[in-house]
Amino acid sequence: MGTSTVQITIDNFEDIIKKPGIVMLDFWAEWCGPCKVFAPVFEKAAEKHTDVVFGKIDTEDQQELAGAVGISAIPTVMVFRDGVLLFRESGALPAQAIDSIVEQTKKLDMDEVKAKMAEHAHEHGPDCDHDHDHDHGDHEHGPDCDHGPEKKA
Known about the structure:
Distance between the termini: 48 Å
CATH class of the domain at 5-108: Alpha Beta
Radius of gyration: 17 Å
CATH superfamily of the domain at 5-108: Glutaredoxin
Helix content: 25-40%
Structural class: alpha/beta
CATH architecture of the domain at 5-108: 3-Layer(aba) Sandwich
CATH topology of the domain at 5-108: Glutaredoxin
Oligomer: single chain
Number of strands: 5
Low-confidence stretches: 132-153
Strand order of the largest sheet: 1-3-2-4-5
């Protein structure tokens, strides 16, 4: 781990992601080939974007944390701003993608984002767990699908 990144553990995770500003996290493991390829890209991005907190989570050492946030593939990148999860993707991202994610995250009006989140919570309640921003169309629903009246058996 380089000097531009912060080691994240279950003990400091909440404090780090809730800080004002942008936090980009890399969930990785020593045995993971794609993680090893991605590590220098992530480190270089940390050196470039000094106004962003770049954190690394060793999923072998931090299994409880990885499980708590639902990590099922690595590397996985998560981006938070002002405590709000804005991006999550598994796979080694190219440097240009990281730059783009950082720039897009900086441009967001977080007051608007938080207002939309509050509106969604008010409309659907705290237990709502599906995405309303896409058209469900004719896609097949799995046996565990729990959204919408169009649920298929």
